[in-house]
Amino acid sequence: MKCAVDIESRDVEEMYVNIDPIQAGGRLTVDAMKAAIAYGDGYSVCDNCRNPPRLDYIKNPPIAQFHADLAAWLNMDTARVVPGARRGFQAVASTYVEKGDPVIVTALAHYTEFMAIEGAGGIPLEIPKDGKNHITPDAAAEKIEAVIREFSKTPPLLFVDHVDYQFGNVHDVAAITKVAHQYDIPVLVNGAYTVGIMPVDGKALGADFVVGSGHKSMAAPAPSGVLATTNEHAERVFRTTQAKGDVTGRTFGIKEVEMMGCTLMGVTVVGMMASFPRVRERVQHWDTEVAHSQAVVDALLSIEGTKVLSDYPRQHTLTRIDTRESFDKVAQQHKKRGFFLASDMKKRGITGVIPGSTRVWKFNTFGLTEKQIRHVGESFIEIARENGLNIV
Amino acid sequence: MSKRAVDAVFQALFLLSDVRFLLRETTPGHDLDEAQKARAATTLDKVKRQVAILEEELIR
C-alpha cells in the first residue's frame, strides 16, 4: 500500500516484532503518533510564538515547560531540544574546541562524536577499551596524561558514551568524569542509548553535558535529541548572538548561536513532548527490560557454539552476539547462505536481523511485550533445531 | 466552518491510532486476548460514531 506517490506505507512495526539494534527505543508511543497527525505541518508549533521570539519560550503547546521538565528529569540545570544527538555534540564541540585542539573520545565512541570534533577543527584521540570492552577510569587518566604530554595542552573536552553502540555495555561514567575533572576537562556524556530508556542522573554521573537521542531512545520522530548542561556551562554553549548587519544594522535579540536561533520545531518536538510522560515512566521499568534482554540472550546461548560478546549477565537491551560457531556453520551449507537466518526469522514475524548476518551481529529487545520476548527466544531455538544445531 | 467535523476527523484518526498500536502490541500473530478484543470493539464503535458525525456534517 502506498501512502504517497512512489512511497510505500511502512508497516514494519505492525507486521513484525522488530529487534533492529538502533530502532527499538525510538518507536513512537501512541501519543506521539497522534501528535504527529495533529502537528505535521512545518511551522505548526509556531502559531503562538510571541516575545521573545524563540521556540523554547513557546507556552502553547507547552514547549517552554517541556525544556524545564527535561532538565529536571536529567538532573541538569538547563536543556535544549536539538535535531538529534549529533547536533548536541556539534553544539558543544563548536563552542569548546579550537582548531588543532586534542579532544578525548573513546575506542567505543559513535562516529558522530568524531564528526563533531572534526567539524570544529579538533583532533579526536581515543581512550582504548580493555579486554572486556569497557572504558575504564585508569585508561582515561593514562590517555589524558599522554595527550597533555604530546600536545602540551589540556584537552578542552572529553566525550564518553554512557552505553556504547557496539556492545551495549554500561560504562563507569561517574568514575571517568571524576578523572577528567581532576584535569579540569569538561565531560560530555553521550546518552543516546540511555536517556529515555533507563534512569539517567546527570549530576550523579558528574556530567557537564548530557546528550540524548529522541529518535533512538525517547520514542520521538527523527531527527530529535536533547542537550542538557549545568549552570556553569549554559551561558557559553547557549550564548546568544552578537551579530549585527553592517548595512541594515539589524540585530537578532536572544537567538542562540549554537541552536541556529531556534530549537527543534514541528512534529519532532511535539512528538518528543507527547511521548515524554510515558518515557519518564518507562525508565522506571528498566529491570524488566533487562530481564527480557537476558531471556533472549539465554535462548541464543542455549544454541551450541553461540557466544555473547557484550557483558553477561546483560545490563542493557542492546546485545552483540557471535554465532560464527552456530548459525554461520549452517549458512556455509544452506542454499540461502547467510540470508537463511533473517529469512527464517521473517517467516516467524520477526525482523531487524540484518539480512546476511550470521557471524557477529546485534539486536535490541527494548519495548517488546513478554509474549513477544518468548516468541523471539523460541524462534531462534526452533531455527537452530530445524537446521541441525544442538540445543544445550 | 464545521468545528464538529474537524473534531470528528481528528478523533477518528486518534482512535484508529489506538487500533494501530493494538496491532503493534500483538504482532506478529495479532491474536487478541479477551481484554484486547473488548478494547478493539469499544474503539471501533467510537470510530463509527465519529464517521457518523462526519456524514451528518458533510454529506447529508
Automatic annotation (TrEMBL), chain A:
Its EC number is 2.5.1.73. It comes from the Archaea. The modification N6-(pyridoxal phosphate)lysine is found at residue 216. Residues 65-319 form the Aminotransferase class V domain. Gene3D superfamilies: Aspartate Aminotransferase, domain 1 (3.90.1150.10), Type I PLP-dependent aspartate aminotransferase-like (Major domain) (3.40.640.10). Pfam families: Aminotran_5. The keyword Protein biosynthesis applies. Keywords: Protein biosynthesis, Pyridoxal phosphate, Transferase. It catalyses: O-phospho-L-seryl-tRNA(Cys) + hydrogen sulfide + H(+) = L-cysteinyl-tRNA(Cys) + phosphate. GO terms for molecular function: Sep-tRNA:Cys-tRNA synthase activity. One of its GO terms (biological process) is translation. Its cofactor is pyridoxal 5'-phosphate. The keyword Cell inner membrane does not apply. InterPro entries: Aminotrans_V_dom, PyrdxlP-dep_Trfase, PyrdxlP-dep_Trfase_major, PyrdxlP-dep_Trfase_small, Sep_Cys-tRNA_synth_arc. Pyridoxal 5'-phosphate binds at residues 85-86, 190, 213-215. It is an enzyme of class 2 (transferase). Homodimer. Interacts with SepRS. PANTHER family: CYSTEINE DESULFURASE, O-PHOSPHO-L-SERYL-TRNA:CYS-TRNA SYNTHASE. Converts O-phospho-L-seryl-tRNA(Cys) (Sep-tRNA(Cys)) to L-cysteinyl-tRNA(Cys) (Cys-tRNA(Cys)). Belongs to the SepCysS family. NCBIfam families: PRK09331.1, SepCysS. This is O-phospho-L-seryl-tRNA:Cys-tRNA synthase. The lineage of its organism: Archaea, Methanobacteriati, Methanobacteriota, Stenosarchaea group, Methanomicrobia.
From TrEMBL, chain B:
It comes from the Archaea. This is Uncharacterized protein. It comes from Methanoculleus chikugoensis.
